[in-house]
Amino acid sequence: MIRDNQKNFSRLHVVVDACVITLSYFFAWVLRFIGPFAATAVRARSFEQYMSALIFILPAYILLYHAFSLYEPMRMQGRRLVLSNIIKANSLGILITIFILYTIEEGNISRSVLYMFYGICILASWGVRMLIFYSLRNMRKRGLNQKQVVLVGYSRAAEEYIDRIRENPQWGYVVRGILDDNIPAGTMYKGIKVIGRIANLNVILPESRLDEIAITLGLSEYYRLEEIVALCEKSGVHTKFIPDYNKIIPTKPYTEDILGLPVINIRYVPLSNTFNSMIKRVMDIIGSIIGIIVASPVMLVMCILIKITSPGPLIYRQERVGLHNQTFWMYKFRSMEIQPEAEEKKAWTVKNDPRVTGIGRFMRRTSIDELPQLFNILKGDMSLVGPRPERPFFVEKFREEIPRYMVKHQVRPGLTGWAQVNGYRGDTSIRKRIEYDLYYIENWTVGLDIKILFMTIFKGFINKNAY
């Protein structure tokens, strides 16, 4: 029933968004051609021609809203996150629209209408969502639209679930108590009491008006799962399972159905999906070509400076480990004096390293030495965004020392990444870098890639930890 309600709410939200997008576009047209901006307007297309564009704009925007998670339950999303996703979806939408108009050489559609539509749609979509958000929150404050929950099993999962519910009262969950066979009745955790044994479900369920039962058994009690699920489902109350496996699967798993057999994958990697991988590869090819064209003057100047300041090759090749643990040659502008290969492999560059040339120090600080990797991206060895690749020597070292280190090789390495734009570059904690890399791998979206590229432009090039 709850899942059906969520689906119905999502469908309703799509309908509301369709109305908001349509009205925003219409209002932008009115402002430009009838309202206060009409005096300077040149109407080269009819009203009907403008409105017919909605045939393409409307489904495209609904898909973008879906891609940026704007149809997830609002009780589980922060307001700033929702606003950020609305801005990202609309920004990508207007860029795609302008690009298509430029490609088909359509110059008679007013760009002012599109820019007004962009601003109005963001404000209207945000306003509608906040109206819904505050309406539901006020209902929950009055005791309406709340979900009454009982937890079955006292475990770390139960404690973490209670912590999150207490930190997010806007979700509207009320935990009535915990049932457990090993913890004495009356034991409290942050105001939530152990109210009896698991067998008491037979008494509690008929007497209480519960909305949900959350099974939060400890790992050692999973042998009882089938029995407890059967007991809960007799009540007809919605039942969910919150597994206590954070030490085994510390990040989010996902399930798939193999002819009726549910399979839990320990790690969710969106880029293992062929469609997602294809989209990212297209972005990489287009992005690397544009990057090479834009950066070509800078790369030419660097070639001249490297040649006149230090003898040796312009481009330095270094073996790195990439997708599926396969090695490749990564390109960089040479920033160090020529040295024996065995010496070079020994360690990272350190502060005031005498091997770094004068121009090399500048290139490292500004990340200009990384520009030749645009050709690695074009070849398919790397991606615009992803975990930074490491040398085989350090991969062998870290795979033994750092849990989950090798997961980073399930995707292509990147020119920039989530760890790098958050300050973990150069001589910084490798463990923190892996945490950020894993977050990126398991939460990849086109929107996240765009966000990282923008962050790289504004704060990712200058690297105080680069020596």
Q: Can you describe what's shown?
A:
The chain contains 16 helices and twelve strands. The chain has helices at residues 2-33, 47-52, 54-67, 79-103, 111-141, 156-167, 201-207, 225-233, 274-309, 341-344, 358-366, 373-379, 392-401, 418-421, 430-442, 446-460, and strands at 147-152, 173-179, 188-189, 192-196, 212-215, 238-241, 254-258, 261-265, 315-321, 327-333, 383-385, 414-416. The protein has a six-stranded mixed sheet, with helices on both faces. The chain is flat. The N and C termini lie far apart (59 Å). Mean pLDDT is 83; it is low at 1-5.
- The shape is flat
Distance linking N and C termini: 59 Å
| Strand element count | 12
Which consecutive residue ranges, at least 5 long each, have pLDDT under 50?
1-5
Overall structural domain count: 3
Share in helix:
40-55%
* Topology order in helix (H) and strand (E) letters: HHHHHEHEEEHEHEEEHEEHHHEHEHHH
**Strand sequence of the main sheet, in spatial order?**
3-4-2-1-5-6
Q: Helical segment tally?
A: 16
Could you say which structural class the secondary elements and strand pairing correspond to? alpha/beta
Strand content: 5-15%
Q: What's the rounded overall pLDDT mean?
A: 83
Query: Rounded to an integer, what's the Rg over CA atoms?
Result: 28 Å
Question: The biggest beta sheet, please?
Answer: 6 strands, mixed
